[in-house]
Amino acid sequence: MHNFSSGSPPHHALRDLAKKHGPLMLLRLGEVLTVVVSSAEYAKEELKTHDAIFASKPRLRKICVLELLSPKCVESYRSLREEELSNFIEWVRIATKAGSPVNLSSKVFSLVYCITSRSAFGKKCQDQEKFIQIVKDIIVFASGFNIGDFFPSIKLLHVISRVRPKLEKMHKEADRIMERIISDHMAKATTAKVGEAAAEEDLIDVLLKFHDEHGDTEFSLTKNNIKAVMLVIIFTFCS
C-alpha cells in the first residue's frame, strides 16, 4: 500500500509501477492480493481468450450481451429515452425561466437513473426516489477509502469505520425493493396474455425466462442472481 502514498492518483501510481515491473503485477493491498493488468494485450488474454477461466458466469455474460444489451433491445427503449429526455429538457426550460440556481448534476443523475430503471423494471417503481437515494449513497460509500477492506480479518476496523454496517443496511433496503419488483413481474407474467407479455417485456422479464430457484435446469437464475445483475446494470450506468 505504500506505493499509493505519494499523493498521485491511483491510476498514475499503477502506471508507474507497470513501467518498472511490467504489465502484469500481483500487489498485496494490506491482506488482500490484487492482480493488476496494465496492457491491452494482457487484458485481451484475460477477458477474451481465457474468459471461461476468469469469468465465473460465462453463460450469464452471454445472456447480458445477446438479450439485455443487443442493438434490437436497446432500440426498443428509444421512445422511453426520448420521453425522459423531453421531460428533462422541459424541466431545464422551466428552471431557467425562474432564474434561480439549479443542481444540474443531481438532475442528470436522476435522468440516467430513470432511463435505466424504466428499461429494467418497465415502469417507475413505487419507492423510486428512495431507491435513487440508496444508489447514490452506495456509490459514495463504495468509492471512498475504507481501511477495513484492506484488513478484513481485523473486525475492530469495521466497527470503528461504521462503513460496513451502513452498507449492509442500504443493501437490505435495496434488496427489499428489488424483491417486490421481481415478485410483481412474476405475478404479471402469470396473468398476461402471450402477445401482451412479449410487447411489454423489460430486462427483468428477460432474466425471468431463466428463473429456477432450485437450479434444476442446465442453466438457471435464482432471484438473487437476477437482483445482482440488475444492480450491476444500475450502478454501472449511474456511477
What is the overall number of helices? 14
Q: Termini distance?
A: 25 Å
Oligomer: single chain
Radius of gyration: 21 Å
Instruction: Return the CATH topology of the largest domain.
Output: Cytochrome p450
Taken together, the total number of domains comes to 2
CATH class of the largest domain: Mainly Alpha
Please bin the fraction of helical residues.
55-70%
Q: Order of SSEs, N→C?
A: HEEHHHHHHHHHHHHH
Percentage of β-strand residues: 5-15%
Mind describing the biggest β-sheet? 2 strands, antiparallel
Q: Per the principal axes of the C-alpha atoms, what is the gross shape?
A: globular
Q: Which structural category fits the helices and strands?
A: mainly alpha
At the fourth level of CATH, the homologous superfamily of the largest domain is Cytochrome P450
Which regions contain 5 or more consecutive residues with pLDDT less than 50? none
What is the strand tally? 2
Q: Please give the CATH architecture of the largest domain.
A: Orthogonal Bundle
Strand order of the largest sheet: 1-2
GO molecular function, one term: heme binding
Protein name: Cytochrome P450
Keywords: Heme, Iron, Metal-binding, Oxidoreductase
Pfam families: p450 (PF00067)
